[in-house]
What we know:
The complex is a heterodimer.
Chain A: H1 2-37, H2 42-52, H3 55-66, H4 71-82, H5 84-96, H6 101-109, H7 113-125, H8 131-162, H9 172-181, H10 188-203, H11 211-232
Helix pairs in contact in A: 1-3, 1-7, 1-8, 2-8, 3-4, 4-11, 5-7, 7-8, 10-11
Chain B: H1 4-26, H2 36-42, H3 45-59, H4 70-86, H5 89-106
Amino acid sequence: xxxxxxxxxxxxxxxxxxxxxxxxxxxxxxxxxxxxxxxxxxxxxxxxxxxxxxxxxxxxxxxxxxxxxxxxxxxxxxxxxxxxxxxxxxxxxxxxxxxxxxxxxxxxxxxxxxxxxxxxxxxxxxxxxxxxxxxxxxxxxxxxxxxxxxxxxxxxxxxxxxxxxxxxxxxxxxxxxxxxxxxxxxxxxxxxxxxxxxxxxxxxxxxxxxxxxxxxxxxxxxxxxxxxxxxxxxxx
Amino acid sequence: xxxxxxxxxxxxxxxxxxxxxxxxxxxxxxxxxxxxxxxxxxxxxxxxxxxxxxxxxxxxxxxxxxxxxxxxxxxxxxxxxxxxxxxxxxxxxxxxxxxxxxxxxxxx
Lengths: 236, 108
């Protein structure tokens, strides 16, 4: 009984997960190609996607490697892109916090924009779901998405390593990022955050070690948060 | 220079720290939600860091030794415009890449 409910929950998640995976797969291929252009071999490309499962952060690291930034700056900047994952983790506690530890470990590893958004939406619409059903739905979304991410990165890595290097791809990373970030700008708050970050990044572009990037990111976050607060009339 | 040691350091470091960011709250049973002001800031990490990373590379591309390049500006603009119109990654990147390829083919 519970088992068939879990299975049905997994299937519902998997439908969404497969769709997301297909949407994300071009990005995986692009990541793989660009990573090999930046000097990673196929093993490193696949390891990167297996270990990190966060496209924007992975590509941030690649761009900064190309710019020959120091390792510490590469890590700090890529992690700044991933800070939102902590917010997702905090939000999911109310739904998955009572699951066994090993489930929470796997759920954490598989936590992405897609698995977070789809699962939270489902949990909020169906408060009657059991823990088993919640976990089954989560894995249903997250496992296919992750699998497709690994495979598409690997495919990109194989394609990239067969291309002659320096194939006029210098501008591919900026284009990829713009394509990735523009659909994320959904409200005036997002626009304000992006605008402030751009202005500060340009003003501080001369700072050593790409430090301007971190300052600009921080100013963008503060601007977005401030505008959100003003627009919602929230005084907290 | 991008050496093997640096690449593996970045992969392992990013993997470990990203897992910790994901696990930090889920791992602690019954932990309370993050304060609202912090959640509000974290919502804007992606739309802040990524444009900040891209803006200098668009205006002063490394390939032209930092000289502003009309073609790369046009490609960037087309990508953003397509991203706003179609709200979809693949359409936006396709438009941007098409402008770039067209410009390189027709250009000097």
